[in-house]
């Protein structure tokens, strides 16, 4: 089974001004990330605008990242959907496009209790031979994948290999770590502010959106945490926190894409219908991005 560890950025999906997938930019972004030391690419997550893209765009995105990766790192494809049938259709497309694993969320839109969340995930995992990563993101799904749900799903679906936790809840994350140790699955921290602390506590890795901008800092932070180098962790966590200032002037995703555009890797455009930055916010993001890039050069 796939062994997930290190930094696996939830990659942005570069788009052209006409709202089409920018394949050339995907190749530039992939090389930028792989050269910095990431150990995988998670496409079509929140940072990748998966829910905002058409099915054809999602398929094209997976294929483009798989081709750009050239086998250097695995490509994980998000298949977050509100129903089992839609999720299974999405995972079949992702598998055909070459994804090494799929990433499944709790169902969303309709309200679900713990039993239904577990059933949803078990059915999805049972529909594929690919490794499956669970993705706990309560702000988006309005359902929580608890340690108890994780245990239920893993015992019924042995191809579940990891969970990404983006709840930002430290106490819940500690419970997830304990459950995962007993189950033999990896836990990946998705909340940037908790990466250093999580690595020192035994997390396998991190899935930070800001790694699109400063991947070398994120990779160094994860390595320092694995090594138990607490002082280095503190310094690198502070650098990563400063880079996250690009999220603050406006809509966070527009800020992230505009910041990555400062590196010449893509356009700043989110998918059509998502908020964009006004000129004042764009100027603030540009300033924060330039500072973050300089900070990365100092620390790594």
TrEMBL record:
Secreted is among the record's keywords: no
Domain of life assignment: Bacteria
Keyword Magnesium: no
Cited Gene3D superfamilies: Aldolase class I
Keywords: Lyase, Schiff base
SMART domains according to UniProt: DHDPS
Record family assignment: Belongs to the DapA family.
Protein name: Dihydrodipicolinate synthase family protein
Protein source organism: Phytohabitans kaempferiae
